[in-house]
Amino acid sequence: MSGILTYALHYQGAFNKNSLGAVSEGAKLAAELGGEAAAVVVGGDDLTDELCASLGRYGASKVYRVRGPEGLAQPVVDAMAKVIQEHGYDYALFGGGLLGFEVGAGLSARLRAGVVMEVTEVKVQDGRLVATRPVLQDSALVDSGYVGSPGIVIGRLNAFDAVERNGAAAQVIDVDVEFQPHSQKARMVKRGEQRGADINIEDAEIIVAGGRGLGQPEGFKMLEELAELMGGAVAATRAVVDAGWYPYSAQIGQTGKTVAPKLYLAAGISGAIQHKVGMQNSENIVAINKDPNAPIFEFCDLGVVGDLHKIVPKLIEALRARRN
Ligand code: FAD
């Protein structure tokens, strides 16, 4: 069977957006290749027929359901390897995020398959997939093709949009997988909520955004205090989200959210084009940056050249004094 196999991660009866993006992208590409779009799901009793079949809405025609531990990479590697070996899919495609990276890399090692990571775009050329990924700190793009099959594509987090296609319900096929001994050595102890899950930056009239200039994750505590005093929300650049300093839900830009608040205060943000597209429609942009040549000074309304670690505490102090 030629086609594209994706992996769909679920939690509490719903598939995550990043996975739905992968399923949707896989379906689009499979149609262009003239092959089948299918997905693998791994989990317990909450993987009902109805939930699995719902992936048809995103273009999957078949869903291979494997009963096993959910949210862990190695059992998914076992499941995907088995389905690919038995059904001969040409490509495996993953959304980004930690699990996508771990499963995709593990599958590549297991099947000795070529893998391209951090992919931002996939196209079909001469009947084969070509994956585009940024390199050299995102300053250039590289196109990679695959030699042999399967080829493995791992997207950047949310690189693929989840598009509903009015597809028919997917056919659900149960697959028994004998998990490898090493795949059973990890178990899920606890699942926690991400910090900042309640941030609603899209509705905020005031946004205080932080970038790599904060120097370390703790820098966000200062911004949270400032935002609280101003009645605003905290946002972040991709650089700091990728570094794990702040949750993805707060990322502004091309691969994050688009906002247009009354005030956007950017601290330690260079103003890269991919960030700018997410906040350029803000009514007032104020930038604090120690580099007078930072690109953000070319499009902000008020630019402050200086060290944010000196300026932000002064702002906090002044606002506190006004409150008292
Ligand atoms: P940097 O570019 O490293 O800038 C840090 C800034 O802080 C510098 O200008 C520095 O002068 C200043 N600074 C340092 N110390 C201090 C200090 N003490 N006081 C004051 N200023 C200081 N980026 C996004 O933000 N959102 C996206 O959605 C996004 N999507 C992308 C999609 C693609 C396909 C690609 C290729 C890139 C994307 N990027 C995105 C990344 C983007 O290109 C930049 O790399 C990123 O925005 C840079 O983040 P930054 O400004 O925090 O870091």
Describe the overall structure.
This protein is of the alpha/beta class and 324 residues long. The protein has helices at 17-33, 49-53, 73-87, 97-111, 219-230, 238-242, 273-279, 308-323; strands at 3-7, 10-11, 14-15, 36-43, 62-67, 91-94, 114-119, 121-125, 128-135, 140-145, 151-155, 171-175, 206-210, 233-236, 263-267, 284-289, 302-305. Strands 7-11-6-1-4-5-12 form a seven-stranded parallel sheet. Strands 14-13-15-16-17 form a five-stranded parallel sheet. Helix 5 (219-230) links the parallel strand 13 and strand 14. Helix 3 crosses helix 4 and helix 5 (219-230) packs parallel to helix 8 (308-323). It is elongated and about 65 Å long. The N and C termini lie far apart (70 Å). Residues 120, 134, 138, 211-213, 237-240, 251-256, 268-270, 272, 274-275, 278, 288-291, 294, 307-309 line the site of flavin-adenine dinucleotide (FAD). Flavin-adenine dinucleotide binds at residues 120, 134, 138, 211-213, 237-240, 251-256, 268-270, 272, 274-275, 278, 288-291, 294, 307-309. Pfam families: ETF (PF01012), ETF_alpha (PF00766). Its cofactor is FAD. InterPro entries: DHS-like_NAD/FAD-binding_dom, ETF_a/b_N, ETF_a/FixB, ETF_asu_C, ETF_asu_C_CS, Rossmann-like_a/b/a_fold. The electron transfer flavoprotein serves as a specific electron acceptor for other dehydrogenases. It transfers the electrons to the main respiratory chain via ETF-ubiquinone oxidoreductase (ETF dehydrogenase).
